[in-house]
Amino acid sequence: MNQKIRNLFALVIVLFGTLIFATSWWTVDELGAKGLKDNPHNRRKLLEQMRHPRGLIVAADGTVLASNKHSGHGETKRYYRFYPLQGLLSHAVGYYFVSKGSAGLEKQYDDQLAGRQNEFASTIDQLLGHRQEGEDIRTTLDVNAQKVALGALAGRRGAVVAIEPSSGRVRVMASVPGYDPNQITSTRGIGAGASTLNRTTQGRYPPGSTFKVVTATAAIDSGRYTPNSFISGKSPKIISGVPLQNFGGENFGAISLTDALTHSVNTVFGEIGEKLGRATLLKYMLRYGFQRKPPLDYPRDEMVASGAFRTKGCGSGIDYGRVAIGQECHLVTTPLQMAEVAATVANRGVRMKPQLVERVVAKDGRVKQSFRPKEAATVMSTRSAAAVGQMMQHVVEEGTGTAARLAGVSVAGKTGTAEIPGTSENQVWFIGYAPADHPRMAVAVTIERTQGEGGTVAAPIAKQVLEALLGKAARKSG
Amino acid sequence: MSARNRELFGLIPATLLVTGGFTAVLLTRVSNVHDVTLTYGAIFLGCCLFAHLFIRWRLPNADPYLFPISAVLASIGLVELYRIQESFAIKQAGWFALGIVFFCLTIVFLRDYRVLERYRYTIAAASIALLLLPRLAGQATNGAYLAIHVGSFSFQPAEFAKIGVIIFLASYLRDVREVLVQGRLPRISLKHMGPLLVIWGASMVMLIFIRDLGSSLMFFGGFLALLYVATGRLSLVAAGAGMFYLGAWFLTNHIAHVHSRVEIWQHPFQPDLVEGKGYQIAQGLFAQADGGLLGSGFSQSLLYLPGGHSILPAPHTDLIYAVIVNELGLFGAVAMLLTYLLFVRRGFKAGLVSGDGFGKLLATGLTAVFALQVFVIVGGVTKVIPLTGVTLPFISYGGSSIIANFVLLALLLIVSDAGRQRPELRGGVVP
Predict the structure, then answer these.
(1) Which span out of A221-225, A315-319, B309-313 was modeled with the highest average pLDDT?
(2) Cα(A389)–Cα(A386) distance, rounded to whole angstroms?
(3) Cβ–Cβ pairs < 8 A, chains A and B
(4) Interchain CB contact of B274 with A (< 8 Å)
(5) Domain total for chain A?
(6) Where in the sequence is the domain holding A361, given as residue range(s)?
(7) Which terminus of chain A is more solvent-facing, meaning fewer CB atoms within 10 Å of its CB: N or C?
(8) CB proximity B395 to A under 8 Å
(9) How far apart are CA A56 and CA B243, in angstroms?
């Protein structure tokens, strides 16, 4: 019988071996554990995250934009996100809720905010008894200027973006309608008039005459034109085989390129666009960052690319004569892209990578990541930038953009009024920067479907935002 | 070193586990430490020391490892129960003390285990009655009849029945094994095969009445193990296994509850099951995946939902293995399984050294059914077989389980003590 008992023990070893194999299968990622962790019914990861407070998100001046509330105690203690400023910076900051997912910076910097580390580091930390702690994020956003921008938009559908030209720091990211992120989890939702769509990065708008800054850049930097080149401004003029009108049908004689930008003469820029052709225009558009998503530290799926794209319902063939004046069905831009156009001219032709986060700070005060200004592209020569800037200064001093003038500070800019086909409403724009001689801030303002023009509707908003930002900057440097 | 001193030293790991484990759990609850928490550990260790002294007095030659191994297992359980809910640990420490009482009573009243042979039919009848009791007086848990409720206590008769059935089988097979070994299959008369068919029938009846595939597998597996050891005839074992498989297959297709258990086992993540009937197995697997290689550490796993409910159903009984994997990781779980394997090894050893057929079969059968119980519950939680509600011996919360397993341990020690004082082993190296 003893041999049989030994055989039986061998069988038990086989059975226990099966148990060890099965346990290994469910605990080793390379075998079956990965599948369990990724199973959509597995809420453990999310519940686990709720056990630790997330890092704070703060504005440039330290104002808290996202903090935590908690409920329960001991093992049932759970943390929830709370946004003290409600809707003020909701599109930039985004939201984070276990039941609703995440958006904005909350999503982009999720690993840092959750304090997540790679498995090796976290095992070491666990052995050392460190608790998982979220890191804080300091943004580049200016709470006061954001308030001014939203106040100036006054509930009209549209967007304002302000960027520091020399560094790419995004100071204002305002999109109307906004939403209160604290309401995301409420059963009634964020409300009927609210929207999580970030118009600054996701709005696809015709740029209208603000695009003439891009055309002017191509014209001058390619060496084909100077600010003093004279071109006929008659109206109508045949562009790409179809007659093109000036605004209000106004007829100009032969005028300089500077005057043509100052008064936003369509037929001049139409002709330039046609003569420069697709290749040259596209080359400069690419340098400005068109045709692909912007390199902003923001979720890719919450940004769209600006540029001329083949679009259904716009007919075949892109008319670059009309792309040049910003009124072409295939051409759409975001307010962020147009702010970058202004910022690039302001920064002597060098486009900086736009940035929303200044630094990531651990709970013990160590700076884990620090943002350094980074050049994205050299769009044009310093001389060309000075020339285009000069022309934009004329726009504000004596042209269509006089409503953006600031007392004691010279402003450079360009207005835009894109007609919305089939309606009497316009997409109105203003892009610009100030001070014109030593630019510290660039801005883009747009309002959807409104009466009036860029110079009368958008320029005054840009003025208020620039005032708020420069006033602050002046105090800071003084 | 004498066997008893080895046993005393063998208690050191259990002591370390209890003190270390309790400290770890306490450290994570800095907010509400109170002195009484340590008393559960003290009760436990006091019981261990008392039992050791008792064995020293009554069974001086018994296997020196079985008791310390049980103590290690019990201390893993006690720490995890304390982590799951303090009140479980208090009661479990009490059950442990009661278990030691039954352990001592068994040793005192059963000076010679051969006495059991005289009562084998009484014991068999009592065991079957115990098994059917929940169906008559109890209520179903998850569709299975496993417990009867007396006041606030629930009593799981199957835990005791398993011991009774093994005693009967060991005694019966000792008598008929000669016939079964030598007789050609057709010649084996109904007289000899009859009781075996009765056992097969009983396990099928169990499937029908208590509706629990796991218990049924455990009993029938124990029976087949004894049949094999007693006769050495794999043909008999194969025939038995085939009959069990056929019966189980038939019942699976004809009893809704058993059928649904199998269905849940095969597809726990199906959308219509994962939040319902498959929730337990799915959550158990999710918890194990979270454990990884090293586990989250004592008391660090995610166990409670914001509402205060446990994310794992029955974390202290059925799913305690999932909690252990979650907190101690694959390495901790393997260490625990190897500890069980050591227990099984020493249990079979008691059978090997026993001088008579009944002792051999008794120790082997008890050990086999113990090993199968571990396999049934751990296999259920790891989705090797359908999950059924049997306890993890010495670890799961529950009075019936603790007491029954201490009685089982006492029987193994008694057989071992008798075997090891045989003259031919005296003075030699203790195997």
Answers:
(1) A221-225
(2) 5
(3) 141
(4) yes
(5) 1
(6) 143-477
(7) C
(8) no
(9) 66
